[in-house]
Design goal:
This protein has 101 residues and is of the alpha+beta class. The chain is built from 4 helices and 5 strands. It has one domain.
Length: 101
Amino acid sequence: MKKNQIDHDQLFKELLETFFVEFMQLFFPEAYQAIDFTHLKFLQQEVFTDVTAKEKHIVDILVETRVKEEPGLILVHVEPQAYVQKDFNERMFIYFSRLYE
């Protein structure tokens, strides 16, 4: 990255961490009603290695939290994408399946 260039990806991640509750309320109001925001844990970037393709995939934002009045934990995954990527849907499916494991 050039010296004076803004890292928009990192800036967005920091904003989302700061305003996660408001983000969920604005864009996912039904999920917002169900989530217990007293238990928010931003997990470090999870890395998935695709051995066959020799690629590493990194999850941008992963939040561990709870659903109100329910046992157990849930994960909220946010993957900001500023450009069109042909295999984006496939990549999200792979992330989902790896997180599910």
